[in-house]
Amino acid sequence: MSSYHLGHLDYLETEAIHILREVAGEFDRPAILFSGGKDSICLLRLAEKAFRPSEIPMPFLNIDTGHHFPELNEFRDRRAAELGARLIVRTVDDAIARGLAIPAPGEISRNKLQIPTLLAAIEEFRFDCLIGGARRDEEKARAKERFFSFRDSFGQWDPKSQRPELWNLYNARLNPGENMRVFPLSNWTEQDVWEYIRRERLAVPTIYFSHPRECVRRGGQWLPVNSLIPPKPTETVQTLRVRVRTIGDIISTGMIESPADNFDDIIAEVAAARVTERGSRADDRASEAAMEDRKKAGYF
User: Fold this and answer.
1) Per-residue pLDDT reduced to its tens digit, 177-201
2) Maximum CA pair distance of the chain?
3) CA gap 60, 247 in Å, rounded
4) 149-160 per-residue burial string, b: 16 or more CB within 10 A, e: under 16
């Protein structure tokens, strides 16, 4: 008698597909959060495997801060079109114009402004579940979440009031106005994501690969030169070969010096890294509690 054992990536894939099908069966109006980043790219492949040959039975949603890398938005739009999916984009600029989001005086980052923009989109389309690509290895606050992350009628998350998830059983019960965030990649690591992308031969935005870019050294990291935050008189602009590990706003995403221009080199680089990928995000470096505070208020 022969026995069949799933490999590591196969197990993660099977677990994620099971969760995606649970969402499709339990919720009336789910959506996939798709930014064009590496984690959400994996989500789309998993959704294809979960639901093909039928169409993916949920739209894609992206909250655009207006500070995105152009390469990321181009990839987002192109990939959604290739899959024949409905892509819904809601912008922070529009939320500000409508008075839904109010910038704090002197604050340049728009991360916090994504929260009211997202909550307004949930209300507009009556989404009862949003599927995201967050992973527990990214950051301490992420590690506290379950696969099914309950949000109250204000969109808020209470880490002390999470529902148990025993024997792969998920409590999807909601009252009117409440919603769920679901994270099928919770047990994946950054290296798992890249190995899956390599295995599935998935396209990714070019900024994940080494490329020349003008940067300045600020706050202990290399930030890309851009019109939103021009170089200070005391800063020296340098053209370096860099890439990103995680993509946020262009004003806060740190670039890492790297020669990695293919998947094998990226995987080797990630395996040797001693800093988490979000350690290159200035918005998270500002405070260890930054992510948890944003999530409690309704962030992804």
Assistant:
1) 888 899 999 999 999 999 999 999 9
2) 73
3) 18
4) bbbeeebebeee
Q: Is residue 198 part of a domain?
A: no
Q: pLDDT value at position 261?
A: 94
Three-state SS string across the chain, please?
CCCCCCCHHHHHHHHHHHHHHHHHHHCCCEEEECCCCHHHHHHHHHHHHHHCCCCCCCCEEEEECCCCCHHHHHHHHHHHHHCCCCEEEEEHHHHHHCCCCCCCCCCCCCCCCHHHHHHHHHHHHCCCEEECCCCCCCCHHHHCCCCEEEECCCCCCCCCCCCCCCCCCCCCCCCCCCEEEECCCCCCCHHHHHHHHHHHCCCCCHHHCCEEEEEEEECCEEEECCCCCCCCCCCCCEEEEEECCCCCCCCCECEEECCCCCHHHHHHHHHHCCCCHHHHEHHHHCCCCHHHHHHHHCCC
pLDDT of residue 146: 82
Phi, psi of 179, deg, nearest 5: -150, 170
- Give the domain extent around 269: 205-285
Give the count of domains, the chain: 2
For the record, the structure tokens of 18 come out as 């099971």
Tokens 């992510």 belong to which residue? 291
Question: Is residue 82 situated within a structural domain?
Answer: yes
* Axis-axis angle for helices 190-200, 38-51 (nearest 10): 60
Q: Are 32 and 131 in contact (CB under 8 A)?
A: yes
Task: Specify burial of residue 281 (Cβ count, 10 A radius: 0-12, 13-18, 19+).
Answer: buried
Q: How far apart are CA 200 and CA 48, in angstroms?
A: 12
CATH of the domain at 145: 3.40.50.620
Of 226 and 143, the structure prediction assigns the larger pLDDT to 226
CA distance 213 to 252: 15
